[in-house]
What we know:
The protein is mainly alpha-helical. It has helices at 2-48, 51-76, 92-121, 131-157, 167-196, 200-229, 235-247, 284-298; strands at 251-263, 266-275, 304-311.
Amino acid sequence: MSTDKADKSADKAAEPDQKDRKTRLTVLVALGANLLIAAAKAAAGLFAGSPALLSEAAHSVADSLNEVFLLAALRRSRRPADEQHPFGYGKERYFWSLLAAVGIFVMGGCFSFLQGIEALRSQEQESTGGYIAGLVVLGVALLAEGGSLARALYQVRGQSGGIGGDPALRTVIAEDGTAVLGVLLAAGGMTLHMVTGQGVWEASASLAIGLLLVYVAFRLGKDARAQLIGEAVDPELRRDIRALLDRQPEIDNVASLLTMRLGLDSTLVAARIDLRPGLESERLELVSERIKAAVVKEWPEADQVFLDITEAPAPLPEGTHATGGAPEAERPREPDGPH
């Protein structure tokens, strides 16, 4: 039995490392694809003079830089706790995800807006001679981005927490998803430009790519901000934790329950509980440790459990009022005054 428990504990301890290895591979695949695609888009965009293609090149450059941020997040967030950071470095993952969101906004969204506005203001009739090569590059980019997105979605299916569980994985999926949409928008704008001879279609595609990137950056930044400030666990999990505490025979009442996510696999649980009256003081520490162990056993990610224990007041003797004194029926009757 002890060997089985040790094996299960070792497996649980190895799970975060396995998740990180899979996420790191997913990020590396996305990084390699984005670097190659960025170079191809930039060369084709300069050759064809296409603002939509140059917008997509900036998008891929921003994604490549963001992948570097995510690799740093994976490495730094797993550092062990120390005196200065007693709860560990789990929130580093959210910090680097926030930087990735800023990178998408500045390098991708703003550059795409500039390209679109410049194309709208330009009065020159641009040649579309190199657009066929540009469309071929976009076709290759669509296959590469689609393959990277498929890899990330495949990893999501095999882990708990879904897309929202890992901010690094969530960022990769958001980047690859917007990259696929961006390629389709750029290809559509270039094609309409070739068919109609109107550059407004391509300028509109650049502006649409910019809007898409700004929206994705806002959503990723909003999620990272919530985690950095300190976000509670899901309401369902909070109810389950409270229910477990209520089931403990020594607990009379759960006065309050506070939770906060400290990282991908770390959660703080703080509860103020009233123990049932009559519990011997010598047993308080044992009871406290047993309750903490029960929480951690049910939810291994709840690795920081704190209990503020108070003993419920003893029940009053039957017929005694809260203000004290003898029961009303037994109180001595005052002598009657003189007649």
